[in-house]
Amino acid sequence: MITKREYYANVEGFEEEYKLAVEEKDYHVFEVDVLGEKHTADFRQINESIYSLIIDNKSYSVEISEDGDQFEVLVDGDSYNVEILDDMKRLMKLREEVGLEGRQVVESQMPGYIWKTLKEVGDEVQAGEPVMILVAMKMENEIKAPKDGVIEEIFVKASEDPQESTVGTGDKLFVIE
């Protein structure tokens, strides 16, 4: 199964955020687009934390330790602290950094369907607390409250039938005050 995903990487000590498009081309072989430059990468796990990485026919032994979205990467004796986020996690982080105030309308960041609603109108929620589950590409994605508040309105009725609860990118999901 060929998959293509986009990620955002922040490397400690570097100001620029790197947008990565990763497409699986074959078993363990990926095409990685970094800032418009495409690279072929063969990525294989050797043991719990050691990986063999061949990028554009150059070989690296890489040690990676993971803590959630944070990775410590050791390459050729150099250590890098890297944060890797998908679109949803990046959006939540940006919202938290801004310190949202007032009424917030939460919109879908991807097409899919609302499978489950975890909160109802009138419920109090904390920032980061899941409000609903959006299914996209057979994966369940938690849609979280961007701030502390009360759910004022929910725009989509959850359903196990995708035809009944389909949403597109930018569709309104719920309002929090």
The secondary-structure class comes to: mainly beta
How many strands, which pairing sense, and closed or not: the largest β-sheet?
8 strands, antiparallel, barrel
Report the sheet-strand fraction.
Answer: over 45%
Name the shape in a single word: elongated
* Percent of residues in helices: under 10%
- CATH class of the largest domain equals Alpha Beta
Total strands: the figure is: 16
State the end-to-end distance: 42 Å
Q: How many helical stretches?
A: 1
Name of the CATH architecture of the largest domain:
2-Layer Sandwich
Mean of all residue-level pLDDT scores: 89
Strand order of the largest sheet: 1-2-3-4-5-6-7-8
Summed up, the domain count is 2
- Series of H and E elements: EEEEEEEEHEEEEEEEE
Q: Measured on Cα atoms, how large is the radius of gyration?
A: 19 Å
| CATH domain topology of the largest domain | Glycoprotein, Type 4 Pilin
Poorly predicted runs are none
InterPro entries: Biotin_BS, Biotin_Carboxyl_Carrier/Decarb, Biotin_lipoyl, Single_hybrid_motif
Protein name: Acetyl-CoA carboxylase biotin carboxyl carrier protein subunit
Keywords: Biotin
Domain Lipoyl-binding: 95-177
Textual characterization of the structure:
This protein is mainly β. The chain folds into two domains: about 5-100, Glycoprotein, Type 4 Pilin (2-Layer Sandwich), CATH 3.30.700; about 105-175, RNA polymerase II/Efflux pump adaptor protein, barrel-sandwich hybrid domain (OB fold (Dihydrolipoamide Acetyltransferase, E2P)), CATH 2.40.50.100. It is built from one helix and 16 strands. It has one helix at about 85-100; strands spanning about 5-10, 15-25, 30-35, 35-45, 50-55, 60-65, 70-75, 80-85, 105, 110-115, 125, 130-135, 140-145, 150-155, 165, 170-175. It has an eight-stranded antiparallel beta barrel with strand order 1-2-3-4-5-6-7-8. A four-stranded antiparallel beta sheet has the order 9-16-14-11, with no helix packed on it. Strands 13-12-10-15 form a four-stranded antiparallel beta sheet, with no helix packed on it. The radius of gyration is 19 Å and the shape is elongated. The protein starts with a strand and ends with a strand.
